Amino acid sequence: MKFKSLERGPSLPQEIVASLTSALFAGELRPGDRLPSEQALATEFGVARTVVREAISQLKYDGIVQSRVGVGAFIAQPQERTAFRISPECFKKRKELLKLLRLRNGVVIEVAADAAQARSNRDIARMEAILKEMRDAIGDSDHGAERHFEAERQLIHAIAKVADNEHALNFIVMIDSQIAEKLRSVAVKNTKATELAAVAIEEQARLVEAIKRGDPVAAREKARKHYDNAAQRLADRADFADV
Amino acid sequence: MKFKSLERGPSLPQEIVASLTSALFAGELRPGDRLPSEQALATEFGVARTVVREAISQLKYDGIVQSRVGVGAFIAQPQERTAFRISPECFKKRKELLKLLRLRNGVVIEVAADAAQARSNRDIARMEAILKEMRDAIGDSDHGAERHFEAERQLIHAIAKVADNEHALNFIVMIDSQIAEKLRSVAVKNTKATELAAVAIEEQARLVEAIKRGDPVAAREKARKHYDNAAQRLADRADFADV
DNA sequence: ATTAATCGGGTTGTCAGACAGCCTGCGGGC
DNA sequence: GCCCGCAGGCTGTCTGACAACCCGATTAAT
Predict the structure, then answer these.
(1) Per residue in B81-112, pLDDT tens?
(2) Alpha-helical segments (H) within A1-93
(3) Separation of B229 CA and C8 C1' (Å)
């Protein structure tokens, strides 16, 4: 077997992980296959065995490989993975990003419904404060768009907190922060168009209102309306092109 | 700082990861804090530095800690995590499991809507075959419940495949296989009640029908109806108690 | 006295070698 | 033909070492 040689980048183990996972993705390594021994990999990559071990330990951590003492390391079945992780390249492609957005939206929508049943007065106050921040941001010609963008993220997080589902919150925070990393510039340009920002705020205000009323069905509907629209608005932008 | 001592369990590095993450969860380690040096951790845990390094490399892999050469390793901010992972303990608690189920359902519901727009004749055939397997399973008094359970999982996976969102598929497969691990026995008992199984099959048949019609709104509605009901049926079981 | 250069200790990242415990596969004895 | 034992290879762990790096303190220069 042959792996992409590595070029002293950020971290040796990380390079090896990348090399192995890409070999896996390319189908060169298939579930059930045995990896070369650590020694063999070490010499092939030109590194010490400790480095290879560190790389393999990460793959084990994700359930991508399983190792047996005295035998070797094996590629696990796909359904045995124990972590959900998105490779940084996914965020570079427009199509992938929109898919991730849909994934996130699905969770956010359900969480909004839960929030409508678990809300307290303090929760509502918090969300209304975020809405106010959005409205204030419109007037701020300098950093208004950035403030709006941040406020939108905070609203999502606030809703997830209200829903009292820490797994959903963790998931949303993780996926959202990574999306935000790549999307900030485009999204900021988007909200710079004041009429779009006003529409978005109005949508979110209705969502908060539904949560306030304790109406999960309406919360779900309003959440879907806003977050799907937001994704659509992003998708429609010509400058949000494939990279 | 004091960490839980470890007792030669499954894997030394894994124990250390568990010890560190539990310290993090308990609030003893907070974002921005510096970890003890690898040497210090090694002596404290009574292991070699390589073992500690392997543990820390896993935490780095998840974005939970970041290390700087010549300085040390630091707990990262929560929003810097790059992996979504559920600790095995979560699946032991009834409440946690239901939350995870809601998380999964949110994704499945959105994915069903996408599937309704992307379906092909072959996809429909596949899903109808799975439905047939469910109906056949009712007659099988020996392994019928197990067959039904597996078929339900396959239907979810099939829908995710149709929707052409590999991230959602990965997510669902991961969370579902872990839920299934803990839930199989209860779910199997559930579907043993034939009238419940018949209801569930009917619900899923309507979902498939909506996908076949290419009606995303209906698909969403039917999906929510079935999967929320399924979660409710599980929650209602008295023997699905806290462990 | 203030600033600049230097030095030393501590830390991570990597390397090399070693050994225990385990497993597989082969060959020899029955 | 079947079973036992052994050798070799593998993973898991340990030990010691060194380079590169960072920080703080001490020292030197202005």
Answers:
(1) 999 998 777 777 788 888 999 999 999 999 99
(2) 12-25, 38-45, 49-61
(3) 68
Residue among B198, B180, B189 at smallest CA distance from B238: B189
What region does B231 belong to: left with phi over 0, alpha with psi -120 to 50, or beta? Answer: alpha
Which candidate, A205, A119, A128, places its Cα nearest to that of A162? A119
pLDDT at A193: 65
Q: Which long-range contacts (CB under 8 A, 24 or more apart) does B195-198 make?
A: B196/B233, B197/B134, B197/B137, B197/B138, B197/B145, B197/B148, B198/B138
Give the whole-angstrom CA distance, residue A134 versus residue A151. 6
* CATH 1.20.120.530 boundaries in chain A: 88-236
Residue in B74, B72, B62 with CA at minimum distance from that of residue B38: B72
Output the CA torsion sign for B46, B48, B53, B59. negative
pLDDT tens-place string over residues A168-217: 999 999 998 888 877 777 766 666 666 778 888 999 999 999 999 999 99
Closest residue, chain B, to A157 (C-alpha): B79
Q: How far is A81 from chain B (nearest CA, A)?
A: 6
Question: By the CB < 8 Å criterion, does B110 face chain A?
Answer: yes
In chain A, ranges of CATH 1.10.10.10 domains: 12-80
| CATH code given to domain B12-80 | 1.10.10.10
Average pLDDT over residues A221-238: 87
Nearest CA in chain B to A85: B83
Range scoring the smallest mean pLDDT among A26-35, A187-196, B58-67: A187-196
Cβ of A233 near strand D (distance < 7 A): no
Q: Could you tell me which CATH number the domain at B88-236 has?
A: 1.20.120.530
